[in-house]
From TrEMBL:
<dbReference type="InterPro" id="IPR036770">
    <property type="entry name" value="Ankyrin_rpt-contain_sf"/>
</dbReference>
<dbReference type="Pfam" id="PF00023">
    <property type="entry name" value="Ank"/>
</dbReference>
<feature type="repeat" description="ANK">
    <location>
        <begin position="52"/>
        <end position="84"/>
    </location>
</feature>
<dbReference type="InterPro" id="IPR002110">
    <property type="entry name" value="Ankyrin_rpt"/>
</dbReference>
<protein>
    <submittedName>
        <fullName>Caskin-2</fullName>
    </submittedName>
</protein>
<keyword id="KW-0040">ANK repeat</keyword>
Length: 143
């Protein structure tokens, strides 16, 4: 005797709700980080600087937090921004890197990164002829 197995697939509405929830959680995480370090925007320095004025990209680089760095980049953070002493986020991450602890952050900072959905990523890959393509990071948002 065989049993019929019924699989319940998630509805499109449930997937959309999940995406919205994920975006909301990411936004909250970013806002908590900015508030905790005295910043009010991804491209503005800390309100209470110490010896050196840091921007959020510098703080994420020093922490070695790749997830946070991705969030900052998705929200338009300027990776070329220099601290008040002229140091870049990449230089700070290199200095703090011990046995690969900051490698993922360094990868995000070293290459141009484009954040997009899968459809846009496919279009980017098809636009340029293979001979003209430069190595580039494309981070696909699947959530």
């Amino acid at each position: 005797m065989s049993k019929n197995v019924v699989m319940k697939l998630p509805s499109i509405k449930a997937e959309e709700t999940s995406r919205r929830w994920t975006k909301k959680m990411q936004q909250e995480e970013l806002q908590e980080f900015l508030h905790a370090y005295g910043c009010d925007h991804v491209n503005r320095p800390q309100k209470k600087p110490g010896k050196e004025t840091f921007y959020p990209v510098h703080l994420a680089a020093l922490l070695g937090d790749a997830t946070l760095m991705r969030l900052l980049l998705q929200h338009g953070a300027n990776v070329q921004q220099r601290s008040s002493l002229g140091r870049s986020a990449w230089e700070m991450a290199v200095q703090k890197n011990v046995h690969g602890s900051h490698d993922e952050v360094l990868l995000l900072l070293a290459e141009p990164v484009t954040f997009c959905n899968l459809r846009a990523a496919m279009q980017l890959m098809q636009e340029a002829p293979i001979s003209a393509r430069k190595p580039r990071s494309v981070l696909v948002n699947v959530s």
